[in-house]
Amino acid sequence: MIGFVGWFRPWHGLDLLLRAFVDGGLKDQGAALLLVGDGPATPQIRALIEEHSLHDCVRITGPIPHEQVPDYLRLVDVAVQPSANEYCCPVKIIEYMALGKPIVAPRQANIVELLTDGEDSLLFTPREAGSLAQALQRLVAEPGLRRRIGSAAAGVVESRGLTWAHNASAVLRLVHGII
Q1: pLDDT (tens digit, 9 = 90+) per residue, 99-117?
Q2: Structural domain that includes position 32
Q3: Going by C-beta distance under 8 Å and a sequence separation of 6 or more, which residues neighbour residue 35?
């Protein structure tokens, strides 16, 4: 199960993910897509599902309460960030990491600050469906690699202190230093 969680906006690249899924023959490899969320890009995504006859292997959950997101992510074998703004910290990647999910994400500066290709993720050339498809194909075909990368991703969260508790402690240290 390949999964994405978020608000479906055009810049999240879900159309790219569907193209990569189709062009990479992932359906024929037994893969499925779970798209957890909703948003303005949903009609376009539904149209692509219809166009490529993907009803049997792509599910859109619609909006779900935030506290239920981990239940859906437990179903996911590969977490994907098909696209990301280059000026923000993609928090969903840190959430995927914390859950020990192997991640496929675009190779761009703000992502490379969090992930290391081949160690805790597989990175692809941004906006290239073929490159995304190759990374997904590799993780679908190699369960040992999925386990290794997912475990490494979870370790990075702890070793680099990528938690709200760590951030809060850092802020408190700064405040105490000023006082």
Answers
A1: 999 999 999 999 999 999 9
A2: 2-178
A3: 3, 4, 8, 14, 45, 58, 59, 60, 61
